[in-house]
Design a protein that fits this description.
mainly alpha, Rhopdopsin 7-helix transmembrane proteins, olfaction, transducer, 11 helices
């Protein structure tokens, strides 16, 4: 569990660092321009880390499933080697799927008003600035979303269905509550991540009439809110982390 939490923390930190240069540039020194190459690079890392976080959340759901449904086999199933392989597979999947996007965008000519709604670059917004047919980008972007966020969210839902089935078979009400309580932090992290991500994707693709302010707010919530709230949630709900935090600040 702590190894998966470390992966989640590193991914959140990476997402924050990717958006930091342009956010600080806009709000602190008024730098409102970004070059094409810099934009494509930022876009690659933002999407890559976002889909990596989706994979980490799926891995954490699997961790909770094994801990509750196969507790006697937990140590033999989730060995350090298996966890490293899961992490590497998640990273490779994200890089391979996102790697073509900057090159697909770079081949387009850009003209007219090149103003972004967000303080960072996203594929679904940058491609709309191109003066060319973006159908291939739109189809590939949808494929990436479905093959990562779509599949991951369904597998997480399926794992919790199995967890709930196992928990309901426990005779003691106190034991049922104790088992479910170990999943609360992860459920909160899943909702914090998937809700704004899916909402932002829907707005960009289908919500053309949505107010511009809604896009701006959803953009900030999508990338900045989960890294802010995840440490708070896990510090409150995980006794060992909470004790170490209290010890660090009180002694």
């Amino acid at each position: 569990m702590y190894l998966f939490l470390s992966m989640l923390a590193i991914t959140d930190l990476g997402l924050s660092l990717c958006t930091l240069p342009t956010v600080v540039g806009i709000f602190c020194i008024g730098a409102r321009d970004i070059g094409h190459d810099a934009c494509f690079t930022q876009l690659f890392f933002i999407h890559c880390l976002s889909f990596l976080e989706s994979s980490v959340l799926l891995s954490m759901a699997f961790d909770r499933f094994v801990a509750i449904c196969r507790p006697l086999h937990y140590a033999s199933i989730l060995t350090n080697t298996v966890i490293v392989r899961i992490g590497l597979a998640s990273l490779v999947r994200s890089v391979v799927l996102i790697f073509p996007l900057p090159f697909m965008l770079k081949r387009f000519p850009y003209c007219g008003s090149q103003v972004l709604s967000h303080s960072y670059c996203l594929h679904q917004e940058v491609m709309k600035l191109a003066c060319a047919d973006i159908k291939a980008n739109s189809i590939y972007g949808m494929f990436v979303i479905v093959s990562t966020v779509g599949i991951d969210s369904l597998l997480i839902l399926f794992s919790y269905a199995l967890i709930l089935h196992t928990v309901l078979s426990i005779a003691s009400r106190a034991e049922r509550l104790k088992a479910l309580n170990t999943c609360v932090s992860h459920i909160c992290a899943v909702l914090l991540f998937y809700t704004p991500m899916i909402g932002l994707s829907v707005i960009h693709r289908f919500g053309k009439e949505a107010p511009h302010l809604v896009q701006v707010i959803m953009g900030f919530v999508y990338l900045l809110f989960p890294p802010l709230m995840n440490p708070i949630i896990y510090s409150i709900k995980t006794k060992q982390i909470r004790d170490r935090v209290i010890r660090a600040f009180c002694y």
